[in-house]
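Field guide to reading this record: the first block holds the primary sequence, the second block holds the structure written as discrete tokens, and the final block holds curator observations. Each block starts with its own label. This record concerns RmlC-like jelly roll fold, catalogued under organism Vigna unguiculata.

BLOCK 1 — SEQUENCE
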Amino acid sequence: MGSSTTLLVLLFVLGNGVAVTMGRFLRTEVEVIEEDLDEELFLVKESKLVANTSAGKMVVFYDRRVPERLQIATTTMEPRSLMIHRFLAATNVMYVVSGEANLGYIDQNNQRLTQIRLREGDVYQIPAGSAFYIANEESDQKLEIISGIEPSQGLGDDKITEDPPRSYNLNKRKPDFENKYGWRVAVDGSQYHPLKSSGIGIYHEYLSAGSMMAPRVNPMATEYGIVVNGSGRVQVLFPNGSNAMDTNITKGDVFFIPSNFPYCEIAHKGESLELLGFTTSAQRNRPVVLVGARSVVRTMEGPELATSFGVSKEEIKHLVSAQHESVILPTP
Ligand SMILES: *[C@@H]1O[C@H](CO)[C@@H](O)[C@H](O)[C@H]1NC(C)=O
Ligand SMILES: *[C@@H]1O[C@H](CO)[C@@H](O)[C@H](O)[C@H]1NC(C)=O
Ligand SMILES: *[C@@H]1O[C@H](CO)[C@@H](O)[C@H](O)[C@H]1NC(C)=O
Ligand SMILES: *[C@@H]1O[C@H](CO)[C@@H](O)[C@H](O)[C@H]1NC(C)=O
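BLOCK 2 — STRUCTURE
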């Protein structure tokens, strides 16, 4: 079943008069990397505008320094628009930031068309090797989607199931942790089973103005983040504790954190910071919090870490004793 079939289905679904955005991504031409060893070390600077019309656009961010090479894509679609992807040899984990979408895809495994309605906060994984479309049929609402794309994924790894999987809504979930400074919610293959085949996990976090996500480290996987709203800072240390990056981030910025590098995010004073992110291994590899009650190192390197992150020893002591502020903290 080829792309012409897909197009026919689309026309049937939508009728006439919709604007069409055609996207094709994962082009492979090689560009020169501008190695930038300054404080922006882990910002993803390479991106490609793969679709751009008056009906919307799609930008893919990628960084060849990352072994897993997950790509982050942002898609913005105007009301009453349609985007078609003929064939994507990669797993695509989508998150609806705002708006509503009608998604349809033909899975190469079973040649069957699956159609599903996605709402704000929904996570959905399109199997590798699918042709798919996304339609924004609303007449007054933009659609914004962020995707994590896993190109190294082999084809045909996804199980053929009788009923296509449902979407998973992150907004309806109770956050994994929450206090007056913010919240964080994450989903992996243990909660949303399709993610088991890709090994991709997703998190969404919110920091109120001036708050900081406690320094932590992911011992197993690369973490990716994209600023959905607001602005702040992301600070990363080398595994040996010296400073690797400390940079301002604002809406649309994409960064990655290699495994074993301690890091934290801080919302600017007077501005909140909202992040969406992906990890490359969904095997329950949540980052380990370094500071605070849940800390694995609270009895060891506290002072050095505190100095690296610009927090006083007294503040660390306070954090360690303050259970309820263990994950999201006010900045000094
Ligand atoms: C993208 O499309 C918009 C509207 O059609 C146009 O104004 C803009 O210049 C385009 N951007 C690029 C980089 O081509
Ligand atoms: C820590 O590791 C980084 C990166 O390998 C290196 O550039 C830096 O000099 C190291 N710092 C110390 C104090 O060893
Ligand atoms: C980072 O943002 C802060 C707060 O907005 C600002 O004071 C500072 O100058 C910025 N730093 C850089 C390097 O842009
Ligand atoms: C985005 O962040 C700004 C600044 O913190 C805030 O005023 C605004 O309400 C946020 N918008 C959304 C949609 O959360």
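BLOCK 3 — OBSERVATIONS
The first strand starts at residue 19 and ends at 22.
The pocket of 2-acetamido-2-deoxy-beta-D-glucopyranose (ligand 3) is lined by residues 248, 268 (CB under 6 Å).
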